[in-house]
Design brief:
Number of strands: 2
Radius of gyration: 23 Å
Strand content: under 5%
Shape: elongated
Number of helices: 8
Structural class: mainly alpha
Largest sheet: 2 strands, antiparallel
Distance between the termini: 36 Å
Number of domains: 1
Strand order of the largest sheet: 1-2
């Protein structure tokens, strides 16, 4: 009867590490999540900025592509979960953070679209109207549509949250640095006009997600190629 070979502590740890390495392939390790959000938020932000500067319209609300991105995020996450037999212990936590992020983006977008009209109806019911008045008398008074000043600053705070969590949990410095830079952009946005906030949001999307996503994707593809050799 052959004697079974006992694994040493070092060999056991190496075996576990190899299994975890082979199992890696979550929504965020592949870079797909970062590339998705970096693309749609960056495009929406820069397009809104350009529309405000050059006074043109594309015929629809560009931010609908950000809301629509929630659908592929959920679908890709579910598909990759089916294909991955094992996951790192922290993957579920990070996936949950990004899912909540998507829900918050949708909720804020809904808030931003609905609240102005709802406020107008409530004010009209009370016989109140907001008026924009030029103190120098250069233009006549005009009705003012309710809005939240520097609302995009809130989005910048939200952008940094899942990015910083992912960067810390995954020990991925590009995301951590991107999130910290986004907090700096948030502070700047508190002192800039709304259209420039959009420009800052586009920059945040690039440093938070798009650049880290490219790095993650290259690492993921290089790892798969090495595993198939």
């Amino acid at each position: 009867m052959s004697e079974e070979k006992k694994l040493t502590e070092k060999e056991s740890l190496q075996l576990i590490a190899d299994m975890i390495k082979k199992a890696k392939g979550s929504y965020h390790d592949t870079g797909i999540g970062s590339l998705l959000w970096g693309s749609v938020v960056g495009i929406a932000s820069f397009m809104t900025y350009l529309q405000s500067i050059y006074k043109f319209s594309i015929g629809f609300d560009i931010w609908l592509i950000v809301v629509a991105a929630i659908i592929p995020q959920i679908w890709i996450s579910v598909q990759e979960k089916k294909q991955t037999r094992a996951k790192q212990y922290d993957d579920d936590t990070v996936d949950a953070v990004w899912l909540v992020f998507g829900i918050c983006i949708f909720s804020l977008s809904f808030y931003q679209m609905v609240i102005p009209d709802a406020t107008i109806r409530l004010m009209q019911g009370q016989g109140v109207e907001l008026i924009k008045r030029y103190t120098d008398g250069s233009k006549p008074d005009e009705a003012l549509r309710p809005f939240a000043p520097s609302f995009y600053s809130i989005y910048l705070l939200l952008y940094a949250f899942p990015t910083l969590v992912t960067g810390i949990v995954k020990k991925f410095r590009p995301m951590t640095l991107g999130a910290l830079l986004t907090y700096v952009l948030f502070v700047i946005s508190c002192f800039t006009p709304a259209n420039q906030d959009m420009l800052l949001g586009g920059i945040a999307a690039i440093v938070c997600w798009f650049i880290p996503g490219i790095i993650l994707r290259r690492k993921y593809l290089a790892g798969r190629a090495a595993a198939n050799v």
